[in-house]
Amino acid sequence: xxxxxxxxxxxxxxxxxxxxxxxxxxxxxxxxxxxxxxxxxxxxxxxxxxxxxxxxxxxxxxxxxxxxxxxxxxxxxxxxxxxxxxxxxxxxxxxxxxxxxxxxxxxxxxxxxxxxxxxxxxxxxxxxxxxxxxxxxxxxxxxxxxxxxxxxxxxxxxxxxxxxxxxxxxxxxxxxxxxxxxxxxxxxxxxxxxxxxxxxxxxxxxxxxxxxxxxxxxxxx
Length: 221
Known about the structure:
Radius of gyration: 17 Å
Shape: globular
Number of domains: 1
Strand order of the largest sheet: 3-2-1-4-5-7-6
CATH class: Alpha Beta
Oligomer: single chain
Distance between the termini: 60 Å
Strand content: 15-25%
Helix content: 40-55%
Structural class: alpha/beta
């Protein structure tokens, strides 16, 4: 009974944070090992040149942006939430953060070497327009990469993943909430969006035993 109550408590805590304090929730999730390590591995896998200018769209509280800065990249983070950006600036004052929408990025065409977006394209209403803006701000020959929850990941997969992670109750509840509540996408649908935007050399990869997927491409025009 105690274990059941603990599980229920953390599930309710996650739901309350989603409703009333999403900024606090994102800041806490950014510190969870399974989430943080996944984002780090996603960036590491691209083996980007040092000093690459990187735009992170939907940067939330700036944890991944800070990680990229520590690797020697030159990142800039944008998010549509004023509160997220305020906390990002407080936590990582050495990095440039801006409030901006993915549908209207305040940057010139062909400006960044790399443009990234984690857990963003899956939640926006106009995915084609969002992909267009990511592509527009990226240089010719540059990389665009996104990370989203996978539509193929199911409840059985979640149980196996949680057993392998063996983390705290809050961490387990956060993973379950992400699985249950976050909109998911298929690799094929993302690839189609990239092709529609004129990108080539499209590659895909799975993380967290397939819970999340990345799709990356090169801008050729």
